[in-house]
């Protein structure tokens, strides 16, 4: 019996394509366009949320281009005092880091109490209770804006918060993250910045394979005033029949039975609010005063 054998290949080994092997983690270049699209939607939603939070007009929220870096760089660039919050997206709680430096927090607190947004110098070592409460509302506003930007199906929930990034440690030091900064500009105040940091795994779960692609913007269209619910909407019309000047001495001497001669205009304006929609002349119809429309705008 000979121990050596000669093996012959009956067929070529199978080589499956990438589609059959299953989804792979998207590269940085593949995730960047989706994040840029998300940043624009997030800026619009966040501007509306800030207006509701402060009770003023919408500020200008300008997103910067997303920055790719290692998570270890975040610790090196961390300021002495800042608010860090981890948000969880969807039922899987995909993590996102919200960073807001101390300066804008104190500026917002000062404005909330009627000030002009003055930052105390030097900065305190920690946030007072008023700043903590404002930070919570700011987190909730940003979380709601993020949910809206993602289409509304995936809720964003604050999970934890601290003033030191090392206490949260949401990412491993060698993890690739994407930092999205947004500058908020308001009249009479210096611009302030906050940032969202997405790990690659979170963006891959949100955008990979387009299973959870961002919703398309709806095509704007003009409403039809002849269709419901506009067709049956009642509109108040005003017709100014007499518009004349009367001296104050004449008004002071008015008595019951006095007769004031008036001149009715030949062209009486018919208005809806402050807008003139037609003009006409005064007449009579079925024993009632009526306006015959001569010109309609």
TrEMBL record:
GO terms for biological process: archaeal or bacterial-type flagellum-dependent cell motility; chemotaxis. It is a peripheral membrane protein. One of its GO terms (cellular component) is plasma membrane. It is found in: Cell membrane. Residues 233-294 form the Flagellar motor switch protein FliN-like C-terminal domain. Keywords: Cell membrane, Cell projection, Chemotaxis, Cilium, Flagellar rotation, Flagellum, Membrane. The keyword Cell cycle does not apply. It comes from the Bacteria. Gene3D superfamilies: CheC-like (3.40.1550.10), SpoA-like (2.30.330.10). InterPro entries: CheC-like_sf, FliN-like_C, SpoA-like_sf. Its main location: membrane. FliM is one of three proteins (FliG, FliN, FliM) that forms the rotor-mounted switch complex (C ring), located at the base of the basal body. This complex interacts with the CheY and CheZ chemotaxis proteins, in addition to contacting components of the motor that determine the direction of flagellar rotation. This is Flagellar motor switch protein FliM. It comes from Novosphingobium fluoreni.
């Amino acid at each position: 019996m000979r121990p050596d054998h000669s093996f012959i290949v009956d067929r070529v080994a199978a080589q499956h394509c990438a589609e059959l092997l299953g989804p792979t983690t998207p590269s940085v270049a593949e995730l960047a366009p989706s994040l840029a699209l998300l940043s624009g939607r997030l800026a619009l939603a966040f501007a509306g949320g800030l207006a509701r939070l402060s009770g003023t007009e919408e500020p200008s929220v300008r997103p910067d281009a997303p920055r790719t870096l290692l998570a270890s760089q975040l610790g090196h660039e961390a300021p002495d005092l800042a608010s860090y919050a981890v948000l969880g997206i969807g039922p899987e709680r995909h993590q996102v880091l919200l960073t807001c430096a101390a300066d804008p927090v104190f500026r917002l607190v000062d404005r909330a109490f009627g000030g002009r947004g003055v930052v105390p110098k030097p900065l305190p070592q920690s946030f007072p209770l008023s700043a903590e409460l404002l930070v919570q509302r700011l987190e909730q506003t940003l979380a709601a804006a993020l949910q809206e930007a993602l289409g509304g199906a995936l809720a964003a929930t604050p999970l934890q918060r601290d003033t030191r990034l090392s206490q949260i440690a949401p990412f491993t030091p060698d993890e690739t993250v994407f930092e999205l900064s947004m500058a908020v500009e308001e009249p009479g105040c210096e611009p302030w910045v906050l940032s969202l940091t997405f790990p690659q795994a979170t963006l891959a779960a949100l955008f990979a394979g387009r299973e959870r692609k961002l919703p398309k913007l709806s095509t704007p269209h003009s409403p039809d005033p002849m269709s419901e619910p506009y067709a049956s909407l009642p509109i108040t019309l005003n017709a100014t029949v007499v518009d004349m000047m009367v001296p104050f001495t004449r008004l002071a001497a008015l008595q019951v039975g006095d007769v004031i001669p008036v001149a009715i205009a030949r062209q009486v304006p018919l208005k809806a609010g402050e807008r003139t929609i037609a003009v006409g002349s005064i007449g009579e119809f079925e024993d009632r005063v009526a306006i015959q429309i001569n010109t309609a705008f």
